[in-house]
Specification:
Radius of gyration: 18 Å
Distance between the termini: 39 Å
Number of strands: 0
Number of helices: 10
Oligomer: single chain
Shape: globular
CATH architecture: Up-down Bundle
Helix content: 55-70%
CATH class: Mainly Alpha
Strand content: under 5%
Order of helices and strands: HHHHHHHHHH
Largest sheet: none
Length: 232
């Protein structure tokens, strides 16, 4: 890396331990039901999706991993994203806590095998879409800002040909799938809250990019949908 930039910091290690090691196993740890196969499937998909996407993105754009790992230390983020970004980053935790508690207290909900199969497929699609966006966009920061020090410009390849914010679209699909895989209607409550945050962040980020990033207005005319094709 240029100027001796560290690729691994204590903060990054803590985040990795929380998001990659601890969080995926929360439903199992809270419910203490180690034969809950759906929770194991979720943990495997979550960990595999994170590791594979970061490995591929790191091989292509190693500086991106530094940007994402140190995003809370950036000096020029949009003021509103100082609040929305952490909510988005930690937003999946309440879903897993609620699902784990729901199972521990005796969930009466059980979605059938057909719904579970569809849910697993959608979750894989959500991770694949988000990972694809991360791999092709080396400005995929965790905080909304113009990365002028890295030559920030419009990315219009890969999933960015379909929607302008495919990372958020992938996250939305993943979050919507989680309650159905983990047999918890109650988990839909934090999911709906998180979807509101995703839509709000998408709207504000898109507005910000049209004002501040050269070429983005032209790109938005070529790709008219922010988040959901043929809808918005």
């Amino acid at each position: 890396m240029k100027n001796g930039t560290k690729t691994i910091t204590p903060g990054m290690v803590v985040m990795l331990l929380v998001f990659v090691v601890a969080a995926p196993f929360l439903p199992l740890l809270i419910s203490w039901r180690w034969n809950w196969w759906e929770a194991w499937v979720f943990a495997i998909i979550s960990i595999s999706g994170f590791v594979i996407s970061r490995y591929l993105a790191g091989r292509r754009h190693p500086e991106l991993l530094v940007e994402r790992g140190q995003y809370l230390q950036n000096t020029n983020p949009e003021p509103w994203d100082k609040y929305l970004s952490p909510i988005s980053a930690w937003g999946g935790i309440p879903i897993l806590i609620v699902a784990g508690l729901n199972m521990r207290l005796g969930s009466s909900t059980h979605f059938g095998s057909a719904i579970k199969t569809i849910t697993i497929f959608l979750m894989l699609c959500g991770y694949a879409l988000g990972s694809y966006a991360l791999i092709v966009n080396h400005y995929f920061s965790g905080m909304v800002r113009i990365q002028s020090e890295r030559g920030h410009h419009v990315i219009n390849i890969g999933p960015y040909r379909w929607v302008r914010h495919p990372g958020y679209a992938g996250a939305m699909i993943t979050y919507l799938s989680m309650p159905f895989l983990l047999d918890s209607w109650w988990a839909l409550i934090p999911v709906l809250f998180l979807l509101i945050i995703i839509f709000l962040r998408t709207y504000l980020e898109d507005q910000f990019l049209q004002e501040k990033l050269p070429g983005y207005t032209d790109y938005s005319q070529q790709v008219p949908y922010r988040l959901i094709p043929w809808v918005w």
